[in-house]
Amino acid sequence: MLFVIAQGIWAHRGDRDAYLALRNRGVTAAAAIIRSSYDANGGDPNGWTRQVVLIPAASGPVQAVVGHHGSNKSDGAVVRVIYDPSKPLNARNLEDFREDDNLDLPATASIAVATCMALLAVATMVKAVAVPARFLVERRRQHYQLSLRA
C-alpha cells in the first residue's frame, strides 16, 4: 500500500515538474495538427481531443501529443502550443495550459493529503504490530510467574 501511495506522489510530482518547466521556460508556437482523435467520454463535459502536432522547435520539427477540451479542429489545422525547448515532447495546448495556471495549489494539496495518508498507514501498521507484541509480553510474564510458583 505504501508503495502505491509513494508511486502516486512521484507521478504527481512529475506532472507538476513538467508544468513548472513550461511555466518557467516554455516557448509558444503555432503547431500543425497531423492527426487527432476525439473521445466524447474523455472525462470532460465536452469530451477530450488527443492531437498529434508538429512543433517547429529550434532543434528541428518535433511531433508531440497534446490534448484539448472538446476541440473541433481537424487534421491540418493550426493550434497554439507551449513547449519546453529542452524537452520539446513536454508540450501542451496553450488554451489548456492557461486553464491549468492554478495548478500549484491543487498539486500541493494532493501531495499533502497523500503524505498524511502514508503517515496514517504507517501508524496503523505500527499499532497492528504493537498489539500482538503486548499480548506476547503479557503471556510470557504470566508463564514466568507460574513457573516461579512451582
Structure description:
It contains three helices and five strands; from the N terminus they run H-E-E-E-E-E-H-H. Helix 1 packs antiparallel against helix 3. A five-stranded antiparallel sheet has the order 3-2-1-4-5. It is elongated, with a radius of gyration of 26 Å. The protein is of the alpha+beta class and 150 residues long.
Short description:
The chain is of the alpha+beta class.
Please report the distance between the alpha carbons of the first and last residues.
48 Å
CATH topology of the domain at 7-100: OB fold (Dihydrolipoamide Acetyltransferase, E2P)
Query: CATH class of the domain at 7-100, please?
Result: Mainly Beta
User: How would you classify the quaternary structure?
Assistant: single chain
Approximate shape: elongated
From the alpha-carbon coordinates, what is the Rg to the nearest angstrom? 26 Å
Number of helices: 3
* Major beta-sheet overview: 5 strands, antiparallel
Helix content: 40-55%
**CATH architectural arrangement of the domain at 7-100:** Beta Barrel
**Rounded average pLDDT:** 76
Q: Low-confidence parts, pLDDT < 50 over ≥5 residues? A: none
